[in-house]
Design goal:
- The chain is of the alpha/beta class.
- The chain contains 16 helices and 14 strands.
- The chain binds one RNA strand through helix 5, strand 7, helix 7, helix 10 and helix 12.
Amino acid sequence: MPLTLYDTMAREKRAFAPRDPKRVTMYVCGPTVYNYAHIGNARPVVVFDVLFRVLRYLYGDDAVLYAANVTDVDDKINAKAQAEGVPIATITDRYLAAYNNDMAQLGALRPTFQPKATETMDGIIAMIGRLVENRAAYAAEGHVLFNTQAFADYGRLSRHPMDDMIAGARVDIAPYKQHPADFVLWKPSKPGDPVWDSPWGQGRPGWHIECSAMIEEALGLPIDIHGGGVDLIFPHHENEMAQGLCADHAEEYARFWMHNGFLNFGDEKMSKSLGNVVLAHDLVKQVPGEALRWALLVGHYRAPLEWTGDLIEQSRKSLDRLYGALRRAQDVTSSTSEPSRKFLAAIEDDLNTPQAMAELFALASELETGDAAVRARAKGELLASGGLIGFLQAHPDVWFQGGADEDLKARIDALIVERVTARREKDFARADAIRAELTAMNVEVMDNPTGATWRIKDPAS
RNA sequence: GGCCUGGUGGCGGAGUGGUGACGCAGCGGACUGCAAAUCCGCGCACCCGAGUUCGAUUCUCGGCCAGGCCUCCA
């Protein structure tokens, strides 16, 4: 079963084969680090993390090179730095550290490369130079602009015919532009903002050029997969590709273009306990990161996703089901460490995570009801399948303990022991009293023939 | 106005030209000192209209609705 991916350029699913199976390359547009990332920013991170993991599984961990850039030159960063009276690096360092931390909580592996715009400045300037040399760009009034007329395929990715772009109501016509669709590669900085020297005067790069330069530097053209949110198709990816191709007279930029759907925020659906929390940075403090990851993958990556408190609740409960099955099967020894065929087939079909998750539940059922051989296989497949896309790697007890600290756990365990004894002696009044006490501590007791297990009922509250 | 997605049961969400995926919630039963979990079973969904077809939720056309993008903003 080959990996099939939907390619935005072709507008259809295509069988994926890397140019070089020993060197699979992927680039995804990363964050601008001027604030904490909101959960919408986390969607592409998680989606492409799944792809990263699948590629590593298929081609080997060392064969996959994944680059995600960090935009650390930006007006919003400048504004924040000025407001706080600190260098921009203070701002960008702070939010990049938080970003990496938050994304790790969502189970995202660190990309192989995480290039920064500020550290790619030489490459950016060199690339602009080549574009000017190739007559694909021109300097005017301290700006350098990309000459869209020089690139016949401009508009091909986004399917925006040139005429439309001129006819569009929101075209900004600046006097120094040769064509309304031309876009900036280099521009003067505003007073007080950071500047870099260039052959066209002091200034800073435009938004799109940094990605082109980073791809060239970190991976080299053409790359196998380029990812990002749908909102980036135009103009960002269109421009990025135009620059990259024209600078090097290259034929091909990205062999597969992949775009994840937007994450929308339901109007008033957020549950009370979660308020209107939309920052990933805040969410990971209140909800297990794995549940958030589940929520982000519960729909297909290309479909829009409505972000609601209910979605988060359901996601946590779905994981309860899976971890519950594993908890009840702690005495079972896995007989395999490979994902199930059905699971793999689903995930290789353009990352059909909803169907892959359904297979996880099917495996959980087998684990509950099968004979010894079935259970051993099901446990192994459940763990391996879940693990392939970043789930179910915690110990079940830890999942259900919901982050309780050692002191609390000790107190709960003591009560559990006491209650088990009371039940054994048929002192049900005492057993019920202890249950009530535990309930007051937000702990739910689950009896079984040999003793009892427990869980924190709602880690968020 | 242009381009592009999508409209599936109480909710989320796959999929398919012809026996209602899967999860959450709900209902009935088994199990259980109680409870939870688990197990067994239940609900008869596919925006509207026309067409193709023996048969369409699935294909075609039209309509309605929702969402996205249409340049310096990630």
